[in-house]
Amino acid sequence: NSTLMPFLMLSIFCPVLRLTTYNFGGFFSTLNFSNTLLALFLCLCLFGCSLFGVLQESMQQADAVSQDLEKVLGTKPFVGFNWNNGSLTSVNIQFQGFPQKEKSLEKIGEVAKKSVMTHFKSKAEQLVISFVIKKQ
Asked: CB-based contacts of 27: which residues, under 8 Å, 6+ apart?
């Protein structure tokens, strides 16, 4: 939930801030409260610009594409994405080896393109499909 994200971010940032202040000791050890307020302010600013909402939504869409391709091709790929200035620039699909079900590269491309167009709300400028083939 987006309402819990500021508290999650604070739980990540505050221990880091405390760790750095305790390492310096002396004057800096008294800045824990101000560092906590600064972290809270930064978290609220980031959540105000809906950056994390877009990121969370994109991750869910990428997971849906991955599950869809696993059903069709028999191999679950890694699906990543790149955003630039609020627009989806690329979706990257990486398979570990070739898909288990015998499909041509053209068919894999068609299935991947259809899945990305179905699940991602924004239209990607490019679709990158790659295969990792390990040395034997």
From this structure: none
